[in-house]
Structure formats: C-alpha cells, structure tokens
Design a protein that fits this description.
Layout: E1 2-8, E2 13-19, E3 23-27, H1 33-42, E4 46-51, H2 57-60, H3 63-70, E5 74-77, H4 87-90, H5 92-95, E6 108-110, E7 115-118, E8 121-127, E9 136-140, E10 145-149, E11 152-153, E12 156-157, H6 167-178, E13 186-189, E14 195-196, H7 197-203
Parallel strand pairs: 3-4, 4-5, 5-6, 10-13
Antiparallel strand pairs: 1-2, 2-3, 7-8, 8-9, 9-10, 11-12, 13-14
Length: 207
C-alpha cells in the first residue's frame, strides 16, 4: 500500500491518495481537480471513494468535480453533512464571497465511531471534534497511519476560532483518541509535513 501527499489550492491543503496496486482512496480534495485527476491517471488507479476529515471550504473545493469524474461516493460525519451545501457553514462565504461553495450532499453520512472497509482499505474512525464539530480522524491500523485533517499538526494543533470550534474539546480529542496510538504512527495532517504520534507527544507545545 502506498500514499502520496498533494498540497492543493491557495492554502496548500493536503490531499492524500492512498493506493494499492489498482485502486485508491482520496482524502480531502480541496482544490485543483485536474491536478488530482492527472496524478491518478498517471498512476493508473481507480478511485473508490472520497473520505472527508471535515467540511471546511479548503478541504472540499474539488469534491464535486472528482465525484462526477469518477462516479464515486463521499463520506462525511453527520454533524457536518449540511455544511457541504451551506457557504456560511463551510466558510466559503466568508473567505470567497464571489464564489461560495454549494456542493451536493455526501452519499454516505457517518453517525458514530466505527470500522469502515472500502475495497482493500480498512479504517478505524475516531470522532475528533474541536477544530470543527464533525471532524473525523481515519486510522489505518495495519499500516500505522492516521489521517488527522486539521486536528493535529507537526508541533501544532487545529485552530478553533471558526464556527463550531472549541479549544478544550480539541485538546480532549487529541488526548483521548490520538495520543494513545503507538508512537510510530504516522500522522498525515491537513496542512504541512507529516509527523508521528511519538514526536507530537514529546515536542508539541500545545500538548
């Protein structure tokens, strides 16, 4: 199994392509759909689904284009299911008033922590609110990887000054759900370079 980090859009939001020999999962297609499509075509992969860590504008900008191109479903937590079609909630109305984002509903709405299998990919889902109320972290246990969205970063944590943000809740999510993972777990954040749980436990000043 392989993975690739592709920063997209003006905020350089990390989209991740997690792949086996033939298929792939797309995390947070924030912008530049043609860039993603070109990469997927070059690798001769067949996408199976889009997994969203949360529904802020910089993580969903290319969602509809990717879904329509590949005819694949999107997954999102129920607490942010309505955000896809509401520019006030997803933040695009505030930051890009000239092109607010009103996207189609997600095909799959996640209602609780659970295990999720799509093709050969098996995830454990953690509800990690704080940055936003419906933030999800996807844990790939057999590969020791965590896709944390904007919850945990290299030497930092997610901002909580946006609608629905809560700093205490964010720190509780990290402490209760993420820090118990093995030290060598690779953390793939929504922005910036990858890190590990062990490194953040030791050196992250917010923790």
């Amino acid at each position: 199994m392989k993975w690739n980090q592709i920063p997209l859009g003006p905020l350089q939001t990390n989209c991740y392509i997690l792949s086996d020999d033939q298929t792939c999962i797309i995390f947070d297609p924030g912008e530049e759909p043609q860039k993603l499509i070109q990469y997927i075509q070059t690798k001769k992969l067949q996408p199976l689904a889009v997994l969203l860590t949360h529904a802020h504008f910089d993580h969903i900008g290319a969602l509809d284009a990717i879904r329509e191109h590949y005819q694949i479903p999107a997954y999102i937590h129920q607490r942010e299911a309505k955000w896809l079609s509401d520019p006030a909630l997803n933040g695009s109305q505030r930051w890009f008033p000239d092109r607010p984002m009103r996207l189609k509903p997600a095909e799959h709405v996640l209602t609780s922590e659970q295990e999720l299998t799509i093709g050969s990919f098996h995830f454990q889902l953690f509800e990690t609110p704080g940055h936003s109320p419906g933030s999800i972290s996807y844990y790939l246990k057999d590969k020791g990887m965590l896709f944390s969205g904007d919850v945990l970063f290299l030497n930092s944590v997610g901002r909580t000054d946006l609608p629905g943000g809560n700093h205490d809740e964010l720190l509780q999510s990290i402490e209760n759900k993420l820090l118990p993972l093995p030290d060598d777990t690779i953390v793939c954040p929504g922005h910036g370079p990858v890190t590990t749980i062990g490194d953040e436990r030791v050196s992250n000043p917010f923790l």
